[in-house]
Amino acid sequence: MEINGSINLVGYGLAVIGSGIGVGLIFASVIQGTARQPEARGAMMGTAWIGFAVVEALAILGLAFALFLT
């Protein structure tokens, strides 16, 4: 059995799925926290945006590595 193509892109696809799950969990936690304690919304949103940026940066790095190693 011979596999043709680039397995790197499959890895990137898995990384994107993980990134999507991570972003969903981040903002779900912020929504739950805001529902429980509305006055802490500002602090939670700042932390959420930082977490969002880190998760998306990892996805972009995954894309760069997938295309670089192709």
Automatic annotation (TrEMBL):
GO terms for molecular function: lipid binding; proton-transporting ATP synthase activity, rotational mechanism. PROSITE patterns: ATPASE_C. SUPFAM superfamilies: F1F0 ATP synthase subunit C. The chain crosses the membrane at residues 12-31, 43-69. It is found in: Cell membrane; Membrane. Keywords: ATP synthesis, Cell membrane, CF(0), Hydrogen ion transport, Ion transport, Lipid-binding, Membrane, Transmembrane, Transmembrane helix, Transport. Pfam families: ATP-synt_C. The record marks E56 as: Reversibly protonated during proton transport. The keyword Cell membrane applies. Residues 12-69 form the V-ATPase proteolipid subunit C-like domain. It is a multi-pass membrane protein. CDD domains: ATP-synt_Fo_c. GO terms for cellular component: plasma membrane; proton-transporting ATP synthase complex; proton-transporting two-sector ATPase complex, proton-transporting domain. Key component of the F(0) channel; it plays a direct role in translocation across the membrane. A homomeric c-ring of between 10-14 subunits forms the central stalk rotor element with the F(1) delta and epsilon subunits. F(1)F(0) ATP synthase produces ATP from ADP in the presence of a proton or sodium gradient. F-type ATPases consist of two structural domains, F(1) containing the extramembraneous catalytic core and F(0) containing the membrane proton channel, linked together by a central stalk and a peripheral stalk. During catalysis, ATP synthesis in the catalytic domain of F(1) is coupled via a rotary mechanism of the central stalk subunits to proton translocation. PANTHER family: ATP SYNTHASE LIPID-BINDING PROTEIN, MITOCHONDRIAL, ATPASE PROTEIN 9. Belongs to the ATPase C chain family. This is ATP synthase subunit c. It comes from Microlunatus parietis.
